[in-house]
Design a protein that fits this description.
The protein is of the alpha/beta class. The chain is built from eight helices and twelve strands. The chain has one domain. Strand 11, helix 8 and strand 12 form a beta-alpha-beta unit. The radius of gyration is 20 Å and the shape is globular. 27% of the residues are buried. The N terminus is likely disordered.
Length: 260
């Protein structure tokens, strides 16, 4: 079962294009296992991983709640606080979460190739809708959300104006955003869509867990790094056929002089 929650930040449609960049060995491992690896946030480089921005944390305190108003009413404020309290009572903040990261972009990203899949790299191209269906087909429970990139130096959000279209105020959406979906502005180039799952089992490792996924539904196309040797695309195609997949394999022409 897929749980999709709308958090603050850009909300991708089902047609939004997403990418997963990796080395060739990791790609073959995905084909063999028919699973994706969800890493523990403890393994990420960013020391602020899982930290709520101080200004947002201040919104979620119950200090003088009668003075906290949104649009002339404290109802939305109380609802936001009630949602967070409910998560705390369910043990949501003690549950072990695991993350699989995707890049949202209509086009290939030269930066992502260099960072995650350079010489012999491979990228799975999919869509947000395909991601949801791919996990749902395996009966896997995940939550899918874009990351909110936030200025952690802000200390006051009380003066954010209400949206002119009558939608939810930005600070209300921030109050209901999980800590694992906040990152600092310095990482905004990642344009990250996070797939999260959770476990209360003791057998979950510190590094992460593998989660079943329907690869035929997940994969729209497979791209091979623009600097990879010409023969790699053929190898990728053979590997995919071996595991019953026939999606198109594209050798990226990102650095080609010829416009197509």
């Amino acid at each position: 079962m897929v749980i999709f929650k709308v958090f603050s930040g850009p909300v991708p449609t089902n047609e939004a294009v997403v990418w997963r960049f990796m080395d060739f060995v990791t790609f073959v491992s995905i084909l063999q296992r028919k699973q994706l690896f969800f890493a523990s946030p403890k393994c990420f480089d960013d020391p602020f991983e899982g930290v709520m921005p101080p200004a947002v944390a201040a919104l979620c305190t119950d200090k003088e709640p009668h003075t906290q108003q949104v649009g002339g009413s404290d109802k939305l404020w109380k609802l936001g606080m009630a949602l967070r309290k409910h998560r705390e009572e369910l043990g949501a903040f003690n549950t072990r979460y695991f993350i699989n990261c995707w890049h949202m972009n209509d086009f290939e990203s030269a930066a992502m190739w260099k960072l995650y899949a350079h010489t012999a790299g491979v990228a799975i191209r999919s869509t947000k809708g395909r991601l949801m269906k791919a996990f749902d087909a395996e009966g896997t429970t995940v939550s899918i959300s874009p990351v909110t990139y936030f200025d952690f130096n802000l200390d006051d959000l009380m003066n954010i104006p209400l949206p002119a279209d009558g939608g939810l105020p930005e600070h209300y959406k921030l109050m209901t955003t999980p800590e694992l979906c906040f990152k600092r502005k310095s990482f905004e180039h990642e344009r990250e869509l996070r797939i999260m799952t959770w476990s209360n089992e003791n057998d979950a490792t510190d590094a992460g867990i593998y989660v079943p996924v329907n690869l035929d539904m997940l994969i729209e196309k497979v791209y091979v790094s623009p600097v990879a040797p010409n023969w790699l695309a053929g190898v990728v195609s053979c590997e995919m056929k071996q595991y019953g997949l026939d999606q198109e394999v594209v050798h990226s022409d990102l650095y080609s002089r010829q416009l197509t």
